[in-house]
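> forwarded from #structure-qc
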């Protein structure tokens, strides 16, 4: 019986002896998962923005941002504030862009981030 216990403990002893041995082989580098070039989301709502600078300083600032969003010399006078809930992270973002008929609550969209974010309809149905 004592020999049987020694035989049962032998594999355990060999396994433990290997723990302090030579350094393990270097692990293969993990490939970085590329972030998608866009994020999907849903429009929560839109709000039209004034086309002319009002008297209140805060609203003048909003008007200047709208002008910058439209681009210099753009004939587009109708700008809207769009609130989008992004799927990844369940975050809400607000964008200012020219008004489009398809921009309405519930519309699935794709947001391409960058210095000038682009909002487009998501036609993938996913």
């Amino acid at each position: 019986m004592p020999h049987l216990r020694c035989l049962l403990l032998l594999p355990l002893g060999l396994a433990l002896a290997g723990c302090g041995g030579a350094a393990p082989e270097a692990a293969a580098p993990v490939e970085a998962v590329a972030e998608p070039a866009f994020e999907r989301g849903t429009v929560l709502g839109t709000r039209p923005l004034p086309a002319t600078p009002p008297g209140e300083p805060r609203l003048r600032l909003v008007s200047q941002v709208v002008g910058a969003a439209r681009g210099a010399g753009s004939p587009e006078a109708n700008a809207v504030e769009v609130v989008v809930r992004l799927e990844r992270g369940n975050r809400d973002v607000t964008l200012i862009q020219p008004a489009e008929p398809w921009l309405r609550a519930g519309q699935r969209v794709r947001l391409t981030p960058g210095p000038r974010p682009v909002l487009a309809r998501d036609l993938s149905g996913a």
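QC bot note: The beta strands are 39-49, 79-86, 92-98, 108-112, 118-121. The mean pLDDT is 73.
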